[in-house]
Amino acid sequence: MPVIAPEMIEDHYDLVIGGTGFGSMFFLHGYRRRFPRARVLLVEWGGFHDRSWQIENQRNSDTDAAQTFVQDPDEKPWFFTLGFGGGTNCWWANTPRLSPNDFRLRTMYGVGEDWPISYEDLEPYYVAAEQIMLVAGPNDLGCRYPRSAPYPQPAHNLSSVDRIMKSAMPDHHFAVPTARLRTPVGDRGPCCDSVQCNLCPLDAKFTALNTFGEHMDAPTVHVLPNARVLSVELEGGVAKGLRYSTGGREQVVTGDLVAIGCNAIHSPFILMRSGLFHPALGKYLHEKHVLQFEVLLDGVDHFDGGIPTAGLNTLMVDGEHRREGGAALVYFINHYFRDGLRAEWGRWRQTLPMEVFVEDLPLEANKVFDEGGEMPAVSHPRRSSYCDKGVEHVIAKLPQLLAPLPVERIIRRQDLPTGFHIQGTCRMGKDRAQSIVDGGLVHHDVRNLLVLGTSVWPSCGTANPSLTAAALSLRAAALIGG
Amino acid sequence: MKFNPSRRNILIGGGTAAIAAASGASWVLLADEHQALLDYFKRSLPGVRIDEASAAECIHEFLGRWSWKQRRAATVAWQTFGVETMGTMSDKFELAARRALTMYLTNSNFFEVADPRAKTIVYVSRPSGTACTNPFANLDPP
Predict the structure, then answer these.
(1) What's the number of CA atoms in the CB half-sphere (13 Å) around residue A375?
(2) CA-to-CA distance for A195 and A206, rounded, in angstroms?
(3) CATH fold of the domain at A6-479
(4) Looking at the record's lineage, which domain of life comes first (chain B) (predicted)?
(5) Which member of B100, B136, B142 has the closest CB to residue A182?
């Protein structure tokens, strides 16, 4: 049990991390590979709830994340898990990479921002993150997202619909890469399409709890749950530690290296409360926009894939259309929970639910800010016109994409209010006047302070962000002190 | 209840809605969303012998996930216009009805028997946390 009582906190650590989600845990992993004897403290706002607790209580956390920020209830909602492991507990484990041109959006298409690093810079760390998570994926996906090593596990089975698409569009339609096991490893069972990924009955997907035991069991790693990070302690431009509150008391823990991985709502707020003001800090909050469609089919049965999201299509992931509107990644959903089966005798399964992730451009007006209260304030009044044009492009292009299928009708269902991916607010960049951290996730002005997780993203592309957050942290850990 | 947009039904529906608005919960006694869904199941599954006790359990579980406000709206609408017609008028009603039927079909022996019209179809409640819930999934090894 790695949990430590507040009174047992040591005076000083080599590394102090705020937050325990993807960004933090993968940084911890990479850091301890290099410095195995380092003493580390993880400070987590939520509780430490192991898998048994989560299954028994049918929830990932007992901390209500919605109470940790304020916003206009009519605006876009944001959801996240506060608790040890953060988003690794609740995620649905789809692990596509960003595409190479997602890193050079301005250079290629004259819009948005380039990342300070390239796809090639990150590629070895994508491989490493996939190895750690034991991602099951199709190696032919390398034609769109070049890869230097095969996936650790074979891809899950496609559905009949996906196989038709694959046959017609071999370079654009693929099995979804996922951190849900295809073959069992240790106590993790194979995914069998239970469609309850946030509380997987078989523990098939990667979580911090089922994979990072080596760190949690290490005597040099301490976890302090139920402790909220308030600010970074600074002295002469150097981070000295973290100020946190627990049990109604404020305390300070010191460390040589300090990292904040508290998601894109709380990380900027912590930096603001630390006095690290910057014109871009807290701004450019964004995520992809999620469209939902149902495609009625004539004579082809669906839902016989091996996982809840069996297929993805990359036709709109990149191309000249990105000069005008957002790119789009199309998921072929393999479960019937959203729309149900068809209510026509014998045609029960002749329907295809789809979700489309449409790229949004971060806007300065969408932000996290400090209004003087105890919690951060969030305002996201609108998405970009670039995203809206991307939506129009999807609607215009969908009949072409679906041409290989016997389509009866395409129905646009309700857009999702959120894709559960919170990005931006501590953006990375080469120019310190425009960004908070550099490509190694190190704060431009405080060189022993890192910001981890998806808050550093200057743009969102179309991929689910967790794999990229993990790879960025592994890279940051490899570069630190180098 | 087969849809018949007769003046009588509309009057009945309007009356139900008025009573609902006027007397709060007491209107529930006048309108039965359970029966509306069960009738919908029967019409969607012609010739199938439905085990009504277990089907009622399915409907109870399905509606148990809804708020009182949602149930009130569904009851009035279904009783007034019928499940199928409300489905043609509103995505929400269409999907709600389909989800209910789907819950019944995929948690019963409907897809397990060779001829679902030859055997009584019995719903079996599934506890939360049950693994491998998709009866159509292809889990063949690589």
Answers:
(1) 10
(2) 15
(3) FAD/NAD(P)-binding domain (3.50.50)
(4) Bacteria
(5) B142
pLDDT, chain A, mean? 97
- B99 contacts in A (CB within 8 Å)? 337, 339-340
pLDDT tens, N- to C-terminus, chain B (142 residues): 333 334 334 443 444 444 344 433 333 343 488 899 999 999 999 999 999 999 999 999 999 988 888 888 888 888 888 888 888 888 888 999 999 999 999 999 999 999 999 999 999 998 888 999 999 999 999 9
* Sequence-distant (≥ 6) Cβ neighbours of residue A208 within 8 angstroms: A20, A21, A25, A84, A85, A86, A88, A89
Instruction: Nearest by CB to A339, from B98, B134, B139: name it.
Output: B98
Q: What does each C-alpha distance from A415 to A288, A293, A411, A412 come to in angstroms?
A: 11, 9, 12, 8
- Residue B115 DSSP SS3: coil
Query: Which residue is closest to B129 within chain A, CA to CA?
Result: A201
ipTM (interface predicted TM): 0.90
**By C-alpha distance, which of A213, A107, A369, A345 is closest to B101?**
A345
Under 8 Å CB-to-CB from A449, ≥6 apart: which residues? Answer: A232, A239, A258, A259, A260, A442, A443
- Per-residue pLDDT of A103-160, as tens digits, reads 999 999 999 999 999 999 999 999 999 999 999 999 999 999 999 999 999 999 999 9
CA distance A386 to A394: 12
The domain limits of chain B are 7-121
Distance CA B32, CA A96 (A): 47
Tokens of A278: 């910057």
Minimum CA–CA partner of A346 in chain B: B45
Residues 305-364 of A with CB under 8 A from B: 305-306, 308, 334-343, 345, 348-349
Nearest to A217 by CA among A416, A454, A2: A2
